[in-house]
Amino acid sequence: MALSQPVSVTADARASAPAASARMFLRRRRSGRCGQCRRPRPRAARDPAREAARLGAECRAGLLMSPRLRGAGPGQGDDAAQGGTRAARAARVRHGDRLGTAQGAQKGAGVDGPELLPHPLAGGAFPSPVPPGIGWPGDPADSSTPVAATPGEVASLAAGAVDLHALDARISVCRACPRLVSWREEAAVAKRKSFADQPYWGRPVPGFGDEAPEILVVGLAPAANGSNRTSRMFTGDRAGDWLYAALCRAGFAAIPTSTHVGDGQRLQRARIMSAVRCAPPGNKPTTAERDACAPWMAAELAEVLPTVRVIVALGGYGWDAVLRSLRDAGVRIPRPKPRFGHGARTAVELSGGRCISVLGCFHPSQQNTFTGRLTEKMLDELFADARALCAPE
Ligand code: SF4
């Protein structure tokens, strides 16, 4: 979509207004007031040409997503579902239109453009969400990374990734699920109060850890204020605190904490990934979203499976996702399908006759750890089992 089209704020809003009030809407707009909420519109928003020029300048400076990411071309579907292009939505938020979905977004984004905040460890200044290629530490993507905008494009881009790094990059810019793109970006702009001074990654989260792991940990999806903020799997929330501490005690993580990229955390012989790469509302992706994301998991699994000996599936969702992905890769899964439970274990035979183990583990969510359903001792015992299974026969 051409840069001159932020005026589609009007088109979008008009479309949602009752037909009977269209004339009133246009009269208000000509008077310099928002057509929907009647509040005065900032000067820049009243002048489409000026607004377009400003957005173009921000885009060239890397402060906004590329036109492709903003809704031109394949990204258009998700933006349409949110009510116009990303630029249009951003303009709504900037001028305080009550149609903006996040109150915090209205506070966070000034009339002069996206709010820039320093990375807690690396410094610099980043908007939320973070566009690819502007210097976020460890960002695998840049402005030339191909963007999947439909489930079909996820499948083709996942299959075409030449290595793990290319796969991470493609995952990190995916926009195939309109609802999740909207949710992750709104969470990034609105921010939790305790993280209001931090930029939020606001993009899909690639796998983290050893590129030739022996143990693979598979979770459900990033948390809106955890990985969706920090860009690293299970980093920045209580579930991650439990997981990394247990991995460290078992000898798989360099340090017991994982707070931000740049904190010195490193996984040894281990890797963490999730079945869905974007933070979902209520931690519940839809079946369609799960299926759309499955090719990313399948491609990552194919890259690391040659060295993997044990897969630790976190929660029933992770368990099902692992078995489904292995089955789709041609691995024979025992029938009836093994049931999930903490400590559940099943062995599957890969092509070539090599066997790997899948271990079930309660998810270290606060729901489980606060209630005592999952204790440190239980986690330690499970990772001790995993380590024993990794030992050469
Ligand atoms: S959930 Fe997966 S497929 Fe959907 S937008 Fe995120 S990365 Fe893409």
UniProtKB/TrEMBL annotation:
It holds the Pfam family UDG. Residues 11-20, 77-88 have a biased composition (Low complexity). It comes from Tomitella cavernea. Residues 30-43 have a biased composition (Basic residues). The keyword Magnesium does not apply. The lineage of its organism: Bacteria, Bacillati, Actinomycetota, Actinomycetes, Mycobacteriales. This is Type-5 uracil-DNA glycosylase. Keywords: 4Fe-4S, DNA damage, DNA repair, Hydrolase, Iron, Iron-sulfur, Metal-binding. InterPro entries: UDG_Type-4/5, UdgB-like, Uracil-DNA_glycosylase-like, Uracil-DNA_glycosylase-like_sf. Residues 206-383 form the Uracil-DNA glycosylase-like domain. Belongs to the uracil-DNA glycosylase (UDG) superfamily. Type 5 (UDGb) family. Residues 1-20, 30-51, 67-146 are annotated as: Disordered.
